[in-house]
Amino acid sequence: xxxxxxxxxxxxxxxxxxxxxxxxxxxxxxxxxxxxxxxxxxxxxxxxxxxxxxxxxxxxxxxxxxxxxxxxxxxxxxxxxxxxxxxxxxxxxxxxxxxxxxxxxxxxxxxxxxxxxxxxxxxxxxxxxxxxxxxxxxxxxxxxxxxxxxxxxxxxxxxxxxxxxxxxxxxxxxxxxxxxxxxxxxxxxxxxxxxxxxxxxxxxxxxxxxxxxxxxxxxxxxxxxxxxxxxxxxxxxxxxxxxxxxxxxxxxxxxxxxxxxxxxxxxxxxxxxxxxxxxxxxxxxxxxxxxxxxxxxxxxxxxxxxxxxxxxxxxxxxxxxxxxxxxxxxxxxxxxxxxxxxxxxxxxxxxxxxxxxxxxxxxxxxxxxxxxxxxxx
Length: 377
Ligand SMILES: Cc1cc2nc3c(=O)[nH]c(=O)nc-3n(C[C@H](O)[C@H](O)[C@H](O)COP(=O)(O)OP(=O)(O)OC[C@H]3O[C@@H](n4cnc5c(N)ncnc54)[C@H](O)[C@@H]3O)c2cc1C
Hints:
Number of helices: 11
CATH class of the domain at 4-54 and 174-242 and 338-374: Alpha Beta
Strand order of the largest sheet: 5-6-4-14-15-16-13-17
Number of strands: 19
Structural class: alpha/beta
Bound molecules: flavin-adenine dinucleotide
Strand content: 25-35%
Radius of gyration: 21 Å
């Protein structure tokens, strides 16, 4: 049981945010800006954030050409443009909030490798550029076949190369470090190792219960508003929402001697992505090889997909170039019936921003801003 002192001084807040990923920390910063004199607490179950924000690839991207063509096939043109604009706005907000230096933002080029299977995209680039022109002010996609040989990619697979002219890359570790530092600087409290078991909404407050593994007990924090930013893990707190987890497998090589490319790259309709990072190659993806197994919130490895990633490195990305793997990791994304995040007021006290798909670095800051816009003091 909490002591009298603890109960009096440590458990009452104006606003509590669940989750210290990019969305949760951005939401806390937005809350503090909107309600400067009020106490804001972030509760994070991991010692470090343990979802996707420190486990992703650091693409500051709005989507490859084939992904956007796929969006245009599945939703109206207006919706596809709205999603693109959301990602663009989110990235702008992130860069302004933290500064490019602090997040390691660079524009070293963004490309998509086009194999015979995606050749259809070539005919549709002009139309895609036309649709996006009002947002980007220049053609977003152009052919860059002249760079295939210079980058050293396998020419049998890579029949064309499409360059995206409005994307960049960042350092996800620096980004999350800078967000955490900013939150602390603004006077936001962050408690890690605080696994939220459940919450109860009462007429004048919300009670948020956490499992404390050290004390081996569950106790409650109270707040006026509770914002749920737990992405793939949201069903634990809101069982009725539609969120499906999707695990992403990643590996990174040791520095590769004579590496011929920089920048970020997609292939196979965005299911695979790789980039240069400190002279190494970071490669992830392959969820489409085993959707069923990867529909999980467990952080384990999928040997089949990891082996496939290595093979793609060897055959497509670094043919005839020796490399060794430094480390591997996984992260958990959240998907739904469409690619739009859920940003919702569940009541006048409970709010949520989650289901960021594979583009939460881009979408996250704007999703948090939109959610906090709904929050009443
Ligand atoms: C392998 C991989 C590569 C990716 N690459 C990119 C990319 O290049 N570009 C891009 O834009 N996006 C990318 N993404 C997606 C992006 O990382 C995510 O969409 C984004 O990080 C989601 O942020 P979030 O804050 O919503 O969720 P998360 O970062 O998952 O944060 C949620 C937090 O909530 C905490 N939490 C969960 N349940 C509880 C609870 N009950 N109590 C307390 N805390 C809890 C978790 O521990 C976690 O820290 C990638 C994702 C993965 C996995």
